[in-house]
Amino acid sequence: MPAGRAVAVRINVRHSLFFRQLQAAICGGMIAAAPLPLAAQTPATDWQAALDSGSPRLMLFALQIEKPQGADDFVARLQYGQAMQQTKAAPPVMLSYRANLRPIVAYDGNINSGAPGDGYYIGDILFHNEDPDARAKAGMVFGGEASLTVRFAIAPGRTLDLTAYGTQAHSFDYGLDVLNAGLSACGAQYLGRTSWAEICLGDTFSQRDNAPERERFASIGISKVFASRFGFHEARATVQTSQRKDYDKTSLSLQLITAKAGLGALTLRIDASERIPGYNTRLFGTSAALTRPIAGVSTTLFAGYGVEAGGAIFGQPRRDEVFSIGLSRKLTSHAEASLRLSQRQSTIPAYDGVSVDLDVALIDF
To answer: Where are the chain's structural domains?
Structure first.
C-alpha cells in the first residue's frame, strides 16, 4: 500500500429511547406520525411520493391539493407541527420534542487529527513523518451521544426549534478522547400560501487529542413548495456564515425535492463556499438522493461529489476530490441501517483514501 493511503471503516449503533413518531424531524418541521396507510410499493400517485420525501411542508402541500381519502387527520397533524393551527394556550406552546441517546462503537481513521501516513511525496521527493505522536492514530473508539430538540409555536405560523447535543468517544488503545457538542436555535415563519423564511444561530465545539475547535454559525433561508407537470416540489436556498478562530467563511446551498409517481422522492443539492487561502476547506459539492420502496422496503440511494482546496504543503497546492455513494434501508420494524463508501483523491497522495461508514439505528425499544 503506498505511503499515506488509508482505508477506514466506521460502525455506529444508534438506539432511540423515545417514540418513533417524534423522529420525523427535518428543517421543514417536526411532526408526529399519523395513521395514513402507505403501501410498500412504488408510489402510484404524486402525493404518495411526497410522503417518501420526509418533508412535512411538501407532504402538507401535496395532500391539500390531491385530498386523498382518510388524510384529514394527517393533514391536521402536519399543520399543528408547523404552528398553522390555533392552539388552546397562548404562545409559546411546545408542539413536539425529540430525544435520542445512542452508544458509539466506531473505527476512527484519525483519532488525534494527525498527519496521514508515515510520509508523503512532494513531486518525486518522499518526506518522512519522524514524530510518531504527530502521525494519524487509527483504532476503535467507544462512547455515547445524547441529543434533544424541542419545538415551540411562538406565534401563528412561527416556530422555534431549540437543539442541544453532545458526544464523547474514547480510545482505549491510545487513551485519547473525541468530544463534540453543540447548541442551535432555528426559527421558521410561514409567509403565506407556499413559502417559509428560516433563520438559525448555532455554536459548536469539538476536541481531538486536546486540540479544541469552536465554530459559530448563522444562516438565513427561504423555501417554497409548488407543483408542475413533473410532480410536487420543494425548493430551498440558504446562505450561511461561519466563524472560527482562524477565519470566517460564507457558503450558499440550493436544494430541490421532487415527488413524482413511479419515481419516489428525489433530492438534488448543490453548495458553494468561498476559498480560504492557507486552509483546505470545502469549496463545492453536489449530491442526489432517491427515496422509494424497493422490494417492499423504504430505501434511499445516495451519490455525492465534493471539492476541497485552499491549503498547501511545502508550496504545493492541495486539492481534494471526494466521491461518495450510499444506501439506507429499513431492516426490520425496529432497525434501520445505512452504508456509505467515500473515496478521496488528493494532489497530495498522503491524503488519498477510502472510507466505509456503517450506521445502524435501533427504534422503539
So the answer is: 6-362
- Residues ≥6 apart with Cβ < 8 Å to 332: none
Query: Does the structure show a pLDDT above 50 at 7?
Result: no
At residue 341, φ and ψ (nearest 5 deg) are -115, 130
- Which among 151, 238, 244 has a CA at the least distance from the CA of 203? 244
Is the confidence at residue 186, as pLDDT, over 60?
Answer: yes
CATH of domain 6-362: 2.40.160
Distance CA 13, CA 113 (A): 23
Smallest Cα–Cα separation from 199: which of 224, 218, 184, 225? 218
Cα torsion 217, 308, 300, 198 to 10°: value is 20
Other Cβ atoms within 10 Å of 365 Cβ, number: 8
Measured distance CA(214)–CA(234) in Å, rounded? 33
**Helices 72-81 & 56-66 angle (0-180, nearest 10):** 140
Predicted TM-score of the model (pTM): 0.82
